[in-house]
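Hi F.,

I've been meaning to write this up properly since the lab meeting, where we talked about keeping a consistent format for the predictions we share between groups. The idea is simple: the sequence comes first, exactly as it goes in, then the structure tokens exactly as they come out, then a line or two of notes. No screenshots and no reformatting. I'm using this chain as the first example so we have something concrete to point to.
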Amino acid sequence: MRAIGVHGGKGSADALFIEEIPIPEPKCGDALVKIKAFGLNRMDLLQREGKYPVPPQAPSTMGVEFSGVIEKVGPADGNGFHVGDEVFGLAYGGAYAEYIAVSTNMLIHKPSEMTWIEAAGIPETWITACQALYLIGGHIPGKSVLWHAGASSVSIAGIQLALNSGASAVYVTAGSQEKLDFCVRQLGATAGYNYRDRSWASDILDATNGRGVDVVIDFVGATHFQGNLNVAAKDAHIVQLGQMSGSVLPANIDISGILMKRLRIEGSTLRSRDEQYQKKLRDLLVNQALPKFKNGAFKVYVEKVFPFEEIAEAHKLLESNRTKGKIVCTIN
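Output, unedited:
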């Protein structure tokens, strides 16, 4: 089968190429899926550069989310999945290819109302958002939420989830007015703040009459750490999902808010989690979101679709930080 490899094992987007590798054989509890489309994620860029700790069970081929048709079911019970089923799902790796062998615990039946492209953009993105908002953030109706990187795919999902879950307010930060307008006007966020030219923490404190927000979800890291402490309400949860600005804090960080506000700060990853943990999140996604994809209440926002053969250009677009939503590749 055709798959995407990296010349030399790591490199720039231009090091990506199409190679021929064996079709994987599904093990007990697995299904072999012929892939129609796969989604890109920021971890793919890091993995391509040799900077991502790939789980030991992951194949060398990149890609963790996909949609397609089951061509074969491994030994033992198919867990409700059969040859010919249209599915989408999450994998430890291997989705940048024509076929993938993946546990049926991580597959979801694709609703007929959903396209292959939309389905491929859901698993990693929406499962991460569910994990951050509910499992770690502990969000309940009436609580307020702040999503950093508001136009990222995870935050786009998270904004929709929070609004649907009865959030009292949903705030976002982003690096351009275009992205803020998208979050507020199209997604329905309460308000957005540009972290490049404003004190977003001060603005949010003003907007909340000094109370702050109950759940803060951050992908940025070092540069936002003090602001997160400042803007957090009493007993707030701060969920750290990334460190795009770095992991070493600047000087003079004041951590007194952690104590005085009784804050809980928790970091998390998804790909390194065991299968049963991921299955629990898959089930959460199916229960919380799948019916709303069917009736159109939830939407997958896709920035651009590339053919499989233009994977290098797809990576370059993701690297540009100009996107609002998913980048998806299709395989003919």
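Notes:
Residues 123-136 form the longest helix (14 residues).
The radius of gyration is 20 Å.

If this format works for you, I'll send the rest the same way.

G.
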